[in-house]
Write the structure tokens for this entry.
Amino acid sequence: MAAINTVSISPLSDEEIPISFQVLSKSFGHDAPFVDIYFPNHDTPSGQAQGSKRLTEWKHSSEASTFLKATIATTACDEGSQQTIIGLAVWTLMKEAPPAELAKVENVEEVWPDEADREFMTRLWRDYVVPRSKAIEDSGGKGVYVLELLTVHPDYQRLGAGTALVKWGTKAAIEQELQVVVEGTPVARRLYENCGLRTKIEEMRFDVGEEFAGRRKPKLIFMTRGPFHFVLA
Ligand SMILES: CC(C)(COP(=O)(O)OP(=O)(O)OC[C@H]1O[C@@H](n2cnc3c(N)ncnc32)[C@H](O)[C@@H]1OP(=O)(O)O)[C@@H](O)C(=O)NCCC(=O)NCCS
């Protein structure tokens, strides 16, 4: 029998990336078209190996990104207590707009060997970064705090892990008077609202062209919080 304790938030180590990627894959399933194309075959061993490699490269190359895990302590009568990873979030302080050209940030031939998949992803990416780039421009050089990834294992949802991972970032943003931005899935909307984020774009636009009209397009809500400037009396 296992007793579930409270959720803890702490930095993710490199060694924990493969298990976290499995959490990501289980959590999104095939409900999120953007994740399905961005992490090809994420529910297969080869897709998970590639996804973990990309997360590791990202973690090593971006000093401005904080990779967090959510864990719970489970206590089994016969095995003692252990920490189980149940969630993952990546928060990035972005001071410059990300390149609109996907090939500048990803090894596109390797990740999307199929030319049509590559073109589709490239077009999605171009539109995906538009709202956050505008927010970064509007920040006047301060930058914005972007929640780039949030995922909680389906077996451990509704225990507060998602909220704890989001509040970690909103607290850091408040301390630095930064705006928080996220391209959110509909399922996460209530959580974000509870954490003070508000909808800025109800459904983000993806103009992928006629040739991709038959493909599933992402349904994403662009949400922001703050910045709030406190004036001392
Ligand atoms: C969105 C997600 C991260 C929430 O994680 P979580 O650990 O379950 O979140 P919390 O336990 O902190 O939930 C807080 C509140 O959010 C809302 N919420 C969370 N999951 C919800 C769901 N499936 N449907 C409706 N509301 C939900 C509820 O108001 C909930 O409070 P309550 O349980 O007291 O009613 C998780 O469902 C998930 O990983 N989903 C798939 C991946 C995804 O879409 N990630 C977001 C990318 S932008």
